[in-house]
Every structure is written in structure tokens, then in C-alpha cells.
Q: What sequence folds into this?
């Protein structure tokens, strides 16, 4: 009985959903409520995460801060001697160092890159991702087609780096190779996180996520 | 040890009390119990061995750029005469001394080049540069003679024969047809090389025997002198030595007698060691203008390899390089490269060059390329990490952060890639600064931000004036609610950028958190300074 079941499971056409993606533990987001809905219990490591917002400044950074703070001081791969860098490619405003430090981020591990054109943004992000030096690469791209997102996804796998793309809400209809796509809405009650796509998970909506107001 | 021996001496002296005077006599020999043995100033019996490289075909070899038959011409009494012809031209009958027209009549496709002493000098220096790998003492003895002191290199290269083979093989690869000779004196080696004897003499007795048979024509002595000596029946060095010294000196001057003495090793013959310039500068000239980028890159690569070799010999590295692309018309196009850590590795520089070269606009085809290195500095050797990750399947760091920053800034500009640091300053806009990754980033964070202060993650480059409705600031047409504040910042009165502001955390109805302030001088105006992101 069990042998026939095993045989069936060996068939490559049988898709086993959840179990697949849970091979790698996620990177805890610092928000238990969110972690519960993410496969692997956190942000997908070595993959592309897309965050869609109507405008920048509504809390997208606070959502990431706990995870970034941990990345900047400790290495996810315990066998490396020092933590990786966090690259910011084409941020829309100035990431403010005193606030970053309050959030527990090691400023000496920040790399700010300000390319001029859309193609240079993607080039820089890809370079940073595949270099193997950056543990996380945040980039703000207006245009990111399916092919480009696939490239970045591959670069993230190659460089063992976490790629985070911030994109306008318009991009929602476009296909993307990202392992995780989130939509962020802010309201007076709190922040609503809508998981559009999650590799190995299922789409959900988290209402009223309380983002940390104070530095941890 | 010798310190310990000092107190022993008086003990001995007391033991030998009856013969005190004798001890005192001996003292001068015992007394100097120096910690370090003094350098012996006595003449050393270290034998020097000179390797001479004579390049008879240098004018041709320094100019050669293609495989066509070629001859070098030089103006002699108003007529261009062939000085040197290559093998192909010689086969067609072109000989030294012919007029240029005669040579062209014999071989119409012959390429004639004017002799260029400058180019020869450059070629000789380039060769001297390369020869530095064989000896620390190189001497450019004449316009076509290089001397190497090799007694100190024999052990490293495993003896005379391997050294000689390596050297002659290298010379052939560089396209030089050289005549080599080894002798204990520099002049002796030079004469033997000029005579075309592949001599390898290690002691002075053999040198004397070998030099005796040399014809005077090989000594590079003035022609008049040679003629009068030949008239006397003196044709070899041996004949010269048989002449009475006084008579020789009286008739031909002391200079040539001394030269003979130096060649035989009777007189010392000190030479100046050639020192290459500390900065690298090399040109590559092309026979015709080129605009093929791949070809230009290849030339740059060759220049970079030369540069690497140059720095390797000196154990130096550099942080800056400058390529100049010369055009026939107009000024040269310059391309400057910088990297974070002093480096000499040609491949790494080439990688940076590739990125920049793609963007470089060349207004015209290029006729020559020059590579100049910037300030050189001692290269810190770095021990590479053992690569455990490859075995465990963990991540591999392909680049260091410096290399990543170099690549990025080569592509998008130096100003666009930086790190961050804090500054101890109350004014929010001055509380941080950018930090270049291309220089040393060892400096630590300057100040600690006090934790209770509320600071936004996003800072606007300039504060934005907010419209006001009934005294309340508006953001995107919605009234802001003040949550927290005020935090009064009133500082900087000592310079132009003094501020006097009350900062508040505000929230708009959509739930966005903003950092706003009100100027205390014009109390009605509200500004947005950042988002809590």
C-alpha cells in the first residue's frame, strides 16, 4: 500500500504544494501575525519580494526594519564571519541615518546607490544581488517587467541575497516572478497587508497590522 | 649571550691577578664584546658576474610593427642610406650602406623607416624593465648594450645555464635578436658580446685568454685609433697588451689603456644601476587609426599587463589609472579609473575598464594609447581565505564590497555610490553625512542618537511648505492631526543655517505618519520634513 503511494508521489506530475517551499526557513519579519501567513515563517530568503504601495512613506520601511536590523548585525549563514551589506538602490527619499540607527541597523553596512535611469536601477540591483556581498538589496523600480523580475530572482538565488522591490500599485496587474508579492494600504486603523502571491503559501489579507512605531 | 659574558671577565682578571699587566695587554682584543658583529670592511672576495645583452638590430626591432620587409635608413651626408635591413630585405639584396633609392629599386615593397633614437631608448628601457626579473642590478651601458649583474641570481634560477636559457628565450619572445656573453668584468662581457662569441667565462684567467683573441674592431674604439694600430700590425687585444704600456699611453692616451685594464679586471669598473621611474607610463602606437573597440580594449589589456609587471617587480600597487586615447586631430580623450584598494592585477583593472569603456565616447578613431599610473603605494599582501563554502555549499562571496562599489561607481559615477555615517549635530539635516566607499571607511560612527528622539526613516531633501487651513497644516488636501511634540530645536545660530523649529509627529487621515515642523520665526508656516516610512 505504502509502496504504491510512494510510487505515486515520485511521479513528477504530482504537485505537493506546501511542503515544497518549506525547505528553507524564512527570515522572521518581526511581526508574528505576518510570519504566520508566510511560508517558512518569514520573508523568503534568497528570493525576490515585491511590495506594492500607493505612495512611498506609508510604512513600507517599518515593515522591513526588524528583519533588516537583524541582517545588518548578524549573518544568516552562520559560517560567514561577518554580516552582509544592505544595499538601497534608487530610494525615493533620503534614508535618514539617525532613524535607521534607532531601528538597530548598523550604519556601516549601508550601501546607497543612486543610478540615473530605469535600466541602470535594474543593473545596479542585479550587480548588488549577485555579488554575494549584500544580504539584502532594496530597490525602487517604476518598471519591472516579467523578464527583469526573473533575472533579479535568479541573481538573488545566485548571491544568496534577499531582494525587495518597491513598486507602485499600478504594477499589480503585471506578471512577476517574485516569490512573494504584498500590497500595503495604510489607514487610520492600521496597515492592511494583502498577500497577493506567495510561493508555497496562499493569498490572504491581514487587517490592521500594527507596525512598530518605536524603535525596537 | 655576550652581555652575560661581560661580568665574567673581571673574575678572570682577578684569578690572573699576578699577571695583571699581561691581561691589560690582551684587553684590546677581548674588550670589544659587541652585541652585533661589526661589518667587515675588508675587501670581499665576492665574485661578480656580468651578463651582457648586445642588441645589434635594435633600430630595426624597436620600429618593427608588421611582417613586411623593412629597412632602417639614416641620413649620412645628405643622403638617406640603409643602416639595417631585415632578413627579407637582405634576401632581396638590400645591404647596409646602400642609398634609399637603390634599396627601393631592389625591392619596391620595402618599407623604409627613419632611425629614431628616442624609440630605441624606449625599447631599451622597456627591455631593462623586463630584465629586472633576472637581476636587481641592470645597467644601460650604451645605446644598444644592457648589462646584468647575475652572480646574485644564480642560485634563484638554478645555475648559469637555466638563467641563460630563460633570458635568451625571453629576448626571442620579445622579438630581439641579441648577442649574449658572460664575463667577470662588465667591459669584458660587452666586448665578447660585440664579438658575437657566446662566451661564458667565470674566472679572470680564462677571461684574459679569451680577450686576447678579440679583434680591435669589436672594442668600439675610434676608427682613427684602430687604423693606426692596425697600421702597426696590432689587430687583437693580445697584440695591444704586448705593447709597452708607457709607449701605448704616450701615443694613444691613457684612456684606452685604462679600458683594457678594466676589461681584464685589473682596475675596478663601477657601474650605475639603472632605476626605472616609479610611475608607470607606456604608450602603444598604431600604424593606422583604429576605431574597433574590441581591438582597442585588447591593446589596453596589454598595457595593463605591462603595468602589472612593472608594479609586481616593485611590490607596489596603485589606486588610480589614466588612459589617454590620442587622435590624429583634436585633443586626446582621457579615461580615469579608480579603485578602492591599491591594486595591480591587470584582470581587475580590465574589468573596471570594460564597464567604463562601454560608455566612453570616442570622437575620432584612435592612433595611440597611453597608460599612466597614479601615485603608487606599497601593496599590502592579503592572505586569501580558505574556501570552505565551496565544500559546504554555502554562499560564496564573489566580490568584496570594495569591488562591488568600484563596479557600480565605474558604471554610474563616483558620487552615486556611498555609505552613511552619523554626525554629532542637532540640526536634523546635518546629523548625517555620506561616506565614500572608495576611500578608507574605517572611521567609526561619530555619535549615538538618543533613543527617545523621534526621527523619520525617510527624510526629504528639502523641507516642503505645507498649505494651512485654519491654522492646521494640510497634507494632500487633508488636515493633519498632531500626535507627538513639540520637540524644539533651536540651534546653529553661529552660522548661516541656524534653525528655530518645533518638530511634531503628525498623522494624516490615511494613516501616514509625517514629521512636520513649524518655524518659530514665522509661526504660521508649516513644513513637511520627512515620513516615518
A:
Amino acid at each position: 500500500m505504502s509502496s504504491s503511494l510512494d510510487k505515486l508521489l515520485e511521479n513528477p506530475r504530482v504537485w505537493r504544494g506546501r511542503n515544497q517551499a518549506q525547505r528553507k526557513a524564512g527570515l522572521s519579519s518581526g511581526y508574528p501575525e505576518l510570519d504566520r501567513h508566510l511560508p517558512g515563517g518569514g520573508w523568503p530568503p534568497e528570493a525576490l519580494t515585491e511590495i506594492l504601495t500607493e505612495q512611498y512613506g506609508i510604512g513600507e520601511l517599518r515593515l522591513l526594519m526588524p528583519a533588516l536590523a537583524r541582517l545588518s548585525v548578524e549573518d544568516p549563514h552562520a559560517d560567514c564571519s561577518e554580516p552582509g551589506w544592505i544595499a538601497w538602490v534608487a530610494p525615493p527619499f533620503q534614508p535618514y541615518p539617525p532613524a535607521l540607527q534607532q531601528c538597530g541597523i548598523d550604519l556601516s553596512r549601508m550601501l546607497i546607490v543612486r543610478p540615473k535611469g530605469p535600466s541602470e536601477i535594474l543593473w545596479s540591483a542585479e550587480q548588488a544581488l549577485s555579488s554575494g556581498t549584500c544580504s539584502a538589496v532594496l530597490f525602487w523600480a517604476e518598471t519591472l517587467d516579467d523578464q527583469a523580475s526573473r533575472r533579479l530572482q535568479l541573481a538573488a538565488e545566485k548571491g544568496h541575497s534577499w531582494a525587495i522591490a518597491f513598486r507602485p500599485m499600478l504594477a499589480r496587474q503585471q506578471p512577476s516572478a517574485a516569490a512573494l508579492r504584498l500590497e500595503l494600504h495604510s489607514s487610520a486603523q492600521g496597515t492592511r497587508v494583502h498577500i497577493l502571491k506567495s510561493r508555497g503559501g496562499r493569498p490572504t489579507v491581514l487587517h490592521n497590522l500594527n507596525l512598530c512605531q518605536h524603535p525596537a | 649571550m655576550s652581555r652575560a659574558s661581560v661580568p665574567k671577565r673581571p673574575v678572570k682578571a682577578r684569578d690572573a691577578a699576578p699577571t695583571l699587566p699581561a691581561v691589560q695587554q690582551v684587553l684590546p682584543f677581548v674588550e670589544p664584546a659587541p652585541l652585533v658583529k661589526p661589518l667587515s670592511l675588508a675587501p670581499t672576495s665576492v665574485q661578480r658576474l656580468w651578463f651582457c645583452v648586445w642588441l645589434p638590430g635594435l633600430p630595426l626591432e624597436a620600429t618593427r610593427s608588421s611582417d613586411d620587409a623593412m629597412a632602417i635608413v639614416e641620413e649620412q651626408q645628405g643622403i638617406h642610406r640603409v643602416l639595417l635591413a631585415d632578413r627579407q630585405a637582405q634576401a632581396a639584396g638590400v645591404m647596409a650602406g646602400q642609398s634609399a633609392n637603390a634599396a627601393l629599386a631592389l625591392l619596391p615593397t620595402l618599407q623604409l623607416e627613419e632611425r629614431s633614437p628616442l624609440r630605441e631608448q624606449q625599447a631599451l628601457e622597456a627591455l631593462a624593465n623586463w630584465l629586472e626579473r633576472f637581476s636587481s642590478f641592470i645597467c644601460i651601458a650604451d645605446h644598444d648594450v644592457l648589462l646584468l649583474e647575475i652572480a646574485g641570481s644564480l642560485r634563484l634560477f638554478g645555475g648559469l645555464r637555466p638563467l641563460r636559457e630563460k633570458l635568451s628565450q625571453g629576448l626571442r619572445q620579445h622579438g630581439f635578436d641579441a648577442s649574449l656573453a658572460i664575463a667577470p668584468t662588465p667591459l669584458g662581457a660587452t666586448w665578447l658580446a660585440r664579438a658575437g662569441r657566446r662566451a661564458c667565462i667565470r674566472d679572470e684567467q680564462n677571461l684574459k685568454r679569451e680577450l686576447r683573441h678579440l679583434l680591435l674592431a669589436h672594442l668600439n674604439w675610434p676608427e682613427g685609433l684602430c687604423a693606426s694600430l692596425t697600421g702597426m700590425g696590432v689587430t687583437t687585444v693580445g697584440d695591444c697588451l704586448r705593447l709597452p704600456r708607457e709607449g701605448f699611453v704616450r701615443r694613444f692616451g691613457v684612456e684606452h689603456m685604462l679600458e683594457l685594464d678594466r676589461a681584464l679586471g685589473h682596475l675596478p669598473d663601477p657601474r650605475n644601476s639603472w632605476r626605472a621611474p616609479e610611475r608607470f607610463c607606456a604608450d602603444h602606437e598604431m600604424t593606422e587609426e583604429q576605431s574597433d573597440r574590441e581591438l582597442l580594449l585588447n591593446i589596453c589589456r596589454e598595457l595593463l599587463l605591462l603595468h602589472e609587471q612593472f608594479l609586481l617587480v616593485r611590490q607596489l600597487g596603485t589606486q588610480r589609472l589614466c588612459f589617454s586615447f590620442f587622435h590624429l586631430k583634436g585633443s586626446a580623450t582621457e579615461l580615469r579609473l579608480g579603485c578602492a584598494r591599491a591594486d595591480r592585477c591587470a584582470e581587475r583593472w580590465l574589468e573596471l575598464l570594460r564597464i567604463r569603456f562601454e560608455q566612453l565616447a570616442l570622437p575620432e578613431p584612435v592612433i595611440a594609447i597611453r597608460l599612466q599610473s597614479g601615485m603608487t603605494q606599497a601593496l599590502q599582501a592579503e592572505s586569501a581565505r580558505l574556501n570552505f563554502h565551496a565544500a559546504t555549499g554555502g554562499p560564496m562571496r564573489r566580490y568584496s564590497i570594495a569591488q562591488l562599489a568600484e563596479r557600480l561607481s565605474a558604471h554610474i559615477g563616483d558620487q552615486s555610490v556611498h555609505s552613511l555615517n552619523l554626525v554629532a549635530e542637532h540640526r536634523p539635516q546635518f546629523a548625517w553625512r555620506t561616506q565614500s566607499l572608495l576611500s578608507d571607511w574605517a572611521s567609526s560612527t561619530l555619535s549615538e542618537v538618543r533613543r527617545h528622539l523621534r526621527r523619520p526613516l525617510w527624510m526629504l531633501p528639502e523641507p516642503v511648505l505645507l498649505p494651512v487651513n485654519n491654522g492646521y497644516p494640510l497634507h494632500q488636501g487633508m488636515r493633519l492631526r498632531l500626535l507627538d511634540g513639540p520637540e524644539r530645536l533651536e540651534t546653529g545660530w553661529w552660522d548661516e543655517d541656524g534653525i528655530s523649529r518645533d518638530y511634531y509627529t503628525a498623522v494624516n487621515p490615511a494613516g501616514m505618519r509625517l514629521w512636520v515642523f513649524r518655524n518659530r520665526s514665522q509661526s504660521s508656516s508649516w513644513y513637511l520634513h520627512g515620513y516615518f516610512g
About this structure: Residues 48 and 288 of chain B are 47 Å apart (CA to CA). Chain B has a mean pLDDT of 80. DSSP finds 19 helices and 22 strands in chain B. Chain B touches chain A through 55 residues (CB under 8 Å).
